[in-house]
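The methods section describes the discrete structure representation at length, but only in general terms. What matters is that the chain and its backbone geometry are given together, residue for residue. For illustration, here is how one protein appears when written out as sequence plus structure tokens:
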Amino acid sequence: MLIDGGLNDFADFSPVPVGVYDFVIKKPMDVTPEHDKQTDIGGKLFTFVIWPEILGGENAGKEVRRQFSNNSKGSRYFLKSFLEKIGVAITKEGAFNNSDLLGKKFRAAVNERIWEDKDGNKKKGSDLDTESIIKV
């Protein structure tokens, strides 16, 4: 029996090789409220995910996922640092406009990340090093 599983129509999900790449943010940041949870200072807890796309080279068009949160002082530092480095305005109250990320270009390193899933299986992926960012 021939089964048409659409196996020729998908994105390449293999990890991006370690290196330095130029990126652009083409998709809106995913913002997910963590209902019934609060930050360490009592505010609303959110998870933020971006998918910057590589510009140029043999990996052009591939995306690298980067997740942020606002649950602790450290996690807020990394999110704020990232936003400032790519030129997103942050209000004195600490808010930002999600749409301001669209079209932002930057250069950053991609490293390899290895972790274990809930069943103890080792997984490998690409990790965008937000501390390495240089605005282009």
Summary: The helical segments are 73-86. The CA atoms of residues 70 and 76 lie 5 Å apart. The two ends are 52 Å apart (CA to CA).
